[in-house]
Design goal:
Length: about 475
């Protein structure tokens, strides 16, 4: 019983992200023979939940089991193992509502951690709002306000509706005054301003209730008043339709069907640490020509200038290769991979150059040089010295702790941007997401969430999209849903 309990899968929540703690060797074996039977005795699954605010940081889970004192046991249930690895993960992850709303995944109850990019949407997603306060002189603000159409489009929908209703009322009132002023000369027989307002409203909306004399008693002012109101009415209608159409068809709403994993992982592959995130789309008509970019925003200590805040660094991608455009097929999950090499902003500064401090552009990074990739040297695409071949390069585990310390010390936030084209409207859609060091888990892989249905069709189960499984160096690479 003790051995069975020791080898049993467990599910641990990292701020509502499920981590299925399955023995790595067993999991690797099940991937290799996915149709093999796992007929073992029922096991006890201890579920730790952080949805109520309790949290186990990735740093606390650096060991094999993590700190048990930080885990809160929510429930215990009997689970039977299934025939393949997908059902094994599925058995240890109970069905939960994937439309659950969270704020910024607080690590402490009642505490919100600052982010450059929000995490305020459902399913642990972002609304794409950057938390940037802009202070500018008046003439610069007027330059921004000169583009009145896009300024109006970017307002809240209720503000647009209020502005348009107010504009309609103003037009009706102005022309009601003109009709009331020309009533005697044009034979309109308007005795009150209310009657003039009704005539103005009927003319603007072309209702056509009529007046005593439809020819305005051949007065000179009548045709000009009606013609000008008709032109103004057409202009107001066209602006209203254009603004509302642009507002409702904008790409920010369409981008919400692009889903990013709640947590990013950093894992070792062939003696190199890699940063990985997972993304897919849930819309039945997926975006076309999708490509991805990653940026790192960090605060650096620069001597003798002190702290440099919100410094942006581009991140080269190895999968999908950014030199090929970083193209994605979002109809299925894609793992986006960045190698942490000397050109990576996630690499600690002390590892970017050799200990002799002699800069070499072939092996070291320095601004404003063009960003390179260490993998290009290893594959013979360019000359240089691979970082792992440097005599002063630390071991894999030492680099792991240095990277972890670098992410926390500089409050690194990685921003992922996916762009694509909607096939129906041909509009460019941009989805954004961010990961701080609190959202990064070491030595884990994304659990499989794609399986084959009973009819042989592909089945993407979003209930398990955020799940993670422990993975040591070079382990469980077969679980990666997108290989090339």
């Amino acid at each position: 019983m003790a051995a069975a309990a020791q080898n049993s899968p467990r599910r641990v929540s990292y701020a509502s992200t499920t981590v299925v703690d399955v023995d790595a060797a067993t999991l690797h074996s099940e991937v290799s023979r996915s149709n093999a039977s796992l007929r073992e005795t029922p096991l006890n699954s201890t579920i730790h939940n952080a949805d109520d605010g309790s949290h186990l940081r990735p740093a606390d889970h650096a060991g094999s089991n993590g700190s048990e004192g930080l885990r809160r046991v929510a429930s215990t249930e009997q689970i039977h193992q299934q025939d393949d690895i997908f059902h094994m993960v599925k058995a240890t992850s109970r069905m939960r509502s994937w439309t659950k709303r969270i704020t910024t995944a607080p690590q402490t109850p009642g505490v919100r951690y600052p982010r450059l990019l929000d995490r305020d949407a459902r399913f642990y997603q972002s609304l794409g709002r950057f938390a940037v306060r802009r202070s500018m002189p008046l003439h610069a603000f007027r330059l921004y306000r000169s583009d009145w159409f896009h300024f109006l489009v970017n307002l809240a929908t209720w503000k647009i509706v209020v502005i348009m209703m107010f504009l309609y009322v103003v037009v009706c009132v102005v022309y009601a005054g003109l009709f009331h002023w020309s009533s005697s000369a044009c034979g309109l027989e308007l005795k009150t301003f209310r009657q003039a307002f009704m005539l103005s409203l009927e003319s603007l909306t072309t209702i056509g209730y009529g007046v005593p004399d439809p020819y305005f008693n051949d007065c000179l002012a009548g045709p000009f008043v009606v013609l000008s109101q008709a032109i103004v009415g057409l202009f107001v209608d066209s602006v209203l339709i254009g603004v509302l159409f642009t507002r409702f068809s904008r790409g920010t709403t369409r981008s919400r069907s692009v889903i990013f994993s709640n947590k990013a992982v950093i894992r070792a592959v062939r003696d190199q640490w890699h940063f990985m995130v997972q993304a897919t789309e849930i819309h039945p008509n997926p975006l076309v020509e999708c490509h991805v970019r990653l940026y790192a925003v960090l605060h650096r200590e620069v001597e003798p200038h002190g702290k440099i805040f919100f410094q942006t660094h581009a991140m080269r991608l190895t999968h999908p290769a950014d030199e090929l455009g970083g193209v994605l097929l979002l109809v299925l999950p894609n793992v986006i991979t960045h190698q942490i090499d000397p050109w990576s902003p996630l690499m600690p500064p002390e590892l970017r150059t050799a200990t002799d401090k002699k800069f070499n552009a072939r092996r070291d990074f320095g601004f404003p040089d063009v960003l390179q990739r260490d993998i290009d040297v290893a594959q013979g695409a360019r000359e240089g010295v691979p970082s792992e071949d440097k005599s002063d390069f630390p071991s894999l585990e030492a680099r792991k702790e240095m990277i972890r310390s670098h992410l926390m010390k500089n409050n690194v936030e990685i921003i992922a941007i996916i762009e694509g084209v909607d096939p129906h409207t041909a509009a460019t859609v941009q989805a954004r997401h961010s990961y701080t060091y609190r959202d990064i888990v070491f030595d884990h892989a994304f659990a499989p969430c794609v399986t084959k249905g009973s009819d042989g069709a592909c089945q993407l189960d979003m209930y398990f999209f955020h799940d993670l499984v422990p993975a040591g160096p070079d382990e469980l690479l077969e679980l990666t849903p997108s290989i090339a």
